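Dear H.,

Thanks for agreeing to be a second pair of eyes. The structure we're designing against is below in token form, covering all 124 positions.
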């Protein structure tokens, strides 16, 4: 069983910074893409940034130049450094990972897994 757990959300003033973390645990054989998505009130869940196993990155236009995604493969962690935060960045931020796991009866399976989310509120 695989779990993703996010941390680091909170309340910050406009122009401030936060760093989100997400750790994966369980019977993990390999982790491919890892990324961050967000969902604001009344909105759909959208990609913020992701990074593949080769550490190539992809960012939403709305966060380019302000947010940085990174990962520590040995620790199964992915981070999102968020700088110059704006009120429109307010959302629940979710971690997603494409993971290959072993099965109890042998073999493996590859699935997308999601964390439960962490709230980020940007307000004065």
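And this is the sequence the design step returned. I haven't edited it by hand at all.
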């Amino acid at each position: 069983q695989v779990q993703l757990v996010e941390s680091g959300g909170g309340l910050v003033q406009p122009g401030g910074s936060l760093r989100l973390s997400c750790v994966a645990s369980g019977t993990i054989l390999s982790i491919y893409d890892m990324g961050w998505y967000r969902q604001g009130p009344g909105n759909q869940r959208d990609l913020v940034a992701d990074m593949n196993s080769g550490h190539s990155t992809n960012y939403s236009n709305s966060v380019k130049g302000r947010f940085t995604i990174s990962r520590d493969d040995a620790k199964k962690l992915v981070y999102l450094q968020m700088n110059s935060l704006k009120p429109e960045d307010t959302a629940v931020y979710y971690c997603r990972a494409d993971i290959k796991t072993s099965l109890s009866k042998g073999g493996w399976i590859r699935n997308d897994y999601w964390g439960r989310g962490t709230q980020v509120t940007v307000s004065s």
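Two observations from my side: The chain has a mean pLDDT of 96. The first strand starts at residue 3 and ends at 7.

Warmly,
E.
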